[in-house]
Amino acid sequence: MSESITESHRFDAPKGISGELSCLRDDEFGRLTLRGMNPFSIERPKAFPPVSKLNTSIYGPPESAVEEEHIIAHLNGMSVQQALEELKLFILDYNDIYLPFLSRINSVGDRKAHATRTIFYLTPLGTLKPIAIELSSAPSLELNSPSKQVLTLLWTPPPTGTGN
Fold it and tell me: What sequence ranges are listed for the domain Lipoxygenase (predicted)?
């Protein structure tokens, strides 16, 4: 195989989508996640909030930083429990996969990686809408150093926004 990894994973832009900012729309982000390298990683959450299975003495509290207040406004009037029961919530959870390797990844050059959890809502149109993204950083020995952050302004759009 003579193709480089960059060449073999290059995709043409989808028809009807133009401009670099198009992927910032909620429905486009969800579509690209499904079209991505591993769409089988998207699952229905077994519980909310998500809980890590990693060693708490090394990686800290297992509870996700994503709380009901972060997502409730994006559930079309449903409670989180109702959205779970009606199979409307999905998660792409890379937290436990990447967290053990972040210190080594981030020690190379100017890199800064996070372990992520993205919560999606299945809209009435049948598209996945990202409603919260949690970033977890490598464990720190510093006291009061936050290791988890939920992006609420950047990736939790207002319920009446331009997304679907």
Answer: 1-164
pTM (2 d.p.):
0.73
Give the tokens for residue 159. Answer: 């319920």
pLDDT attached to residue 154: 39
The pairing of strands 128-136 and 115-122 is: antiparallel
**Across the beta sheet with 148-151, what order do the strands follow?**
42-43, 89-93, 115-122, 128-136, 148-151
CA distance 72 to 108: 38
What tokens appear for 160 in the block? 């009446």
95: domain range?
A: 19-151
CATH number at residue 120: 3.10.450.60
In a domain? residue 39: yes
Answer whether 32's CB lies under 8 Å from 129's CB.
no
* H or E element that contains 162: none
* Beta carbons of 109 and 29 less than 8 angstroms apart: no
Token reading at 78: 């449903």
